[in-house]
Amino acid sequence: MSRVCAVSGKKALSGNRRSHSLRATRRKWNVNLQKVRVMIDGKPQRIRISARALKTLKAEQAAK
């Protein structure tokens, strides 16, 4: 299963890890994915969603 948010489509970013001597080695920043049960078409389904998207959805739900 790939580390991609089901709502926003966010995925891992890559870049360089820099040592004190500025040597560059590759590294990866993963997305903060959470398994959440969400009602989709009236049925509860478990999806993997990023923490930022979950926070946004909760804020929209509270505003209603």
Automatic annotation (TrEMBL):
Entries under InterPro entries matching the protein: Bacterial_rp_bL28 (IPR050096), Ribosomal_bL28 (IPR026569), Ribosomal_bL28/bL31-like_sf (IPR034704), Ribosomal_bL28_bact-type (IPR001383), Ribosomal_bL28_sf (IPR037147)
A molecular function GO annotation: structural constituent of ribosome
Signal peptide: none
Ranges for region Disordered: 1-25
Keyword GTP-binding among record annotations: no
The entry's keywords: Ribonucleoprotein, Ribosomal protein
Source domain of life: Bacteria
Biological process terms in GO annotation: translation
Pfam families: Ribosomal_L28
Gene Ontology CC, one term: ribonucleoprotein complex
Family: Belongs to the bacterial ribosomal protein bL28 family.
Entry-linked NCBIfam families: L28 (TIGR00009)
Protein name: Large ribosomal subunit protein bL28
